[in-house]
User: Which sequence fits this backbone?
């Protein structure tokens, strides 16, 4: 092994260490202690610096006859376990937990469901039905704590139209995933498809006090799209959703039942507050004749959200900031650039490589950090891969043009899962393409077929963490050493 090869191997290890250290610093337990505290029978939400004037942030648990907990998303289990461990009063607590897998250790007060991701399954529907049934029991002396994290859009779903089957919903979600739209636009469409998104969980318990604890995998400016906004007011209009479906040519990719659902006029006509600028559709799925089986009025709508408070537990900003701290501790000049969030992966690769080259010219030992997610348009049946591995392989093809550089690119998902693979992401350097060709792989063909995982795995350049219980979007790192 040459000295350059040893240096590149060391840089691979450093990039991995920065990623793992930043993940470890975003512990749900410590975030709860900062944002959600239980003292003397009171749930307290300490004011953050800069909050200024704010509504009361304390909830006296003794004021509530019953407490419901609904945990949804990839981090549902650790969020739920952390909450229940810290609650002083557990009598009267009931709840639902919908996560990718049912944990071995379970609380008897909670019903657990293993929803599907990235595509829904039967448990996704069952969890949604069970939650709506639970929330219908809520009243003015009920406190509902929602624990919402990324992945909830697929893990937890129920179509408004009962004619839409689980298989139809799977095809619908597949079309959205591969269309190349940013997650905020994808989830805006999902809001109008689902009986448990776009604020409908809040509307299911209008009189109850509701606290939503959020672990977002979306930009903070778009918190209402986290898990497609089950408890958040829906700011998206039907006209905007129809425009998105047309822009990304989605209608022909939807199964007939879903296409009919979005095309027929009943969607707009069934809005109980039509003409009052309300973004809400019926609360419950449609009946046999296409009419809502249960609706909400504007007064219920106003009450439902007046009784709602929200708390952001952690976000992509925490992940990026902890990566910056870890990089500086490792002796790098750290630069953060999140401007390519929701960009096409190829455009993001070119931009970040150019930005890094400019930074490296001034700071030879440099680390460029980028948070958020890139997008991939699937125009064919994909191979094994995900957006992070696709991004890394695109970077590898660019780096092959300057084989003398001492540069490593790292990209991984904070949830430990990239696309349809078991890898969280991957790494590349200027030798990646040469090594792949020596192993009999064609990097350009793998990129075109969205099949980056086999190549990167064969080179030992995959990043495998297993499910992390997090979902704080992706982290990209570019690190370089002086020649």
Assistant:
């Amino acid at each position: 092994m040459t000295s350059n090869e040893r240096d590149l191997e060391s840089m691979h290890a450093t990039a991995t260490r920065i990623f793992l250290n930043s993940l470890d610093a975003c512990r749900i337990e410590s975030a709860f202690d900062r944002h959600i505290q239980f003292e003397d029978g009171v749930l307290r939400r300490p004011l953050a610096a800069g909050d200024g004037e704010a509504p009361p942030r304390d909830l006296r648990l003794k004021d509530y006859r019953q407490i419901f907990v609904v945990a949804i998303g990839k981090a549902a289990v650790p969020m739920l376990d952390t909450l229940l461990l810290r609650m002083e009063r557990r009598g009267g607590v009931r709840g639902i937990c919908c996560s990718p897998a049912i944990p071995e250790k379970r609380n008897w007060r909670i019903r657990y469901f293993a929803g599907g991701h990235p595509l829904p399954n039967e448990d996704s529907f069952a969890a949604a039905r069970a939650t709506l049934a639970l929330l219908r029991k809520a009243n003015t002396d009920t406190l509902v704590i929602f624990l919402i994290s990324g992945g909830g859009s697929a893990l937890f779903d129920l179509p408004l139209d009962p004619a839409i089957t689980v298989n139809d919903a799977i095809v619908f979600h597949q079309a959205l995933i591969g269309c190349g739209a940013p997650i905020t636009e994808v989830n805006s469409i999902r809001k109008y498809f689902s009986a448990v998104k776009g604020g409908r969980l809040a509307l299911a318990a209008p009189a109850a006090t509701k606290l939503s604890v959020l672990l977002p995998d979306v930009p903070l400016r778009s918190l209402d799209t986290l898990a497609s906004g089950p408890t958040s007011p829906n700011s998206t209009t039907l006209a905007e959703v129809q425009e998105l479906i047309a822009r990304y040519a989605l209608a022909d990719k939807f199964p007939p039942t879903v296409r009919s659902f979005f095309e027929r006029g009943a969607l707009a006509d069934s809005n109980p507050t039509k003409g009052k600028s309300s973004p809400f559709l019926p609360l419950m799925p449609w009946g046999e004749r296409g009419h809502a089986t249960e609706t909400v009025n504007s007064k219920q709508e106003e009450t439902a959200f007046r009784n709602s408070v929200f708390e952001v537990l952690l976000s992509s900003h925490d992940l990026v900031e902890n990566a910056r701290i870890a990089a500086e501790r490792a002796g790098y000049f750290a630069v953060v650039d999140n401007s390519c969030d929701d960009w096409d992966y190829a455009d993001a690769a070119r931009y970040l490589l150019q930005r890094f080259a400019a930074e490296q010219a001034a700071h030879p030992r440099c680390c460029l950090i980028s948070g958020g997610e890139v997008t991939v348009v699937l125009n064919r049946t994909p191979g094994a891969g995900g957006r992070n591995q696709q991004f890394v392989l695109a970077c590898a093809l660019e780096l092959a043009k300057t084989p003398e550089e001492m540069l490593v690119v790292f990209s991984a998902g904070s949830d430990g899962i990239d696309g349809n693979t078991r890898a969280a992401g991957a790494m590349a350097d200027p030798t990646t393409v040469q090594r792949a060709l020596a192993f009999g792989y064609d990097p350009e063909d793998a990129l075109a077929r969205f099949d980056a995982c086999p190549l990167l795995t064969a080179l030992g350049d995959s990043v495998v963490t297993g499910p992390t219980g997090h979902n704080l979007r992706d982290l990209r790192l570019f690190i370089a050493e002086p020649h």
User: Anything to note?
Assistant: Residues 32-312 form a domain with the Rossmann fold fold (CATH 3.40.50.10180). The chain has 18 helices and 15 strands. The first strand starts at residue 37 and ends at 39.
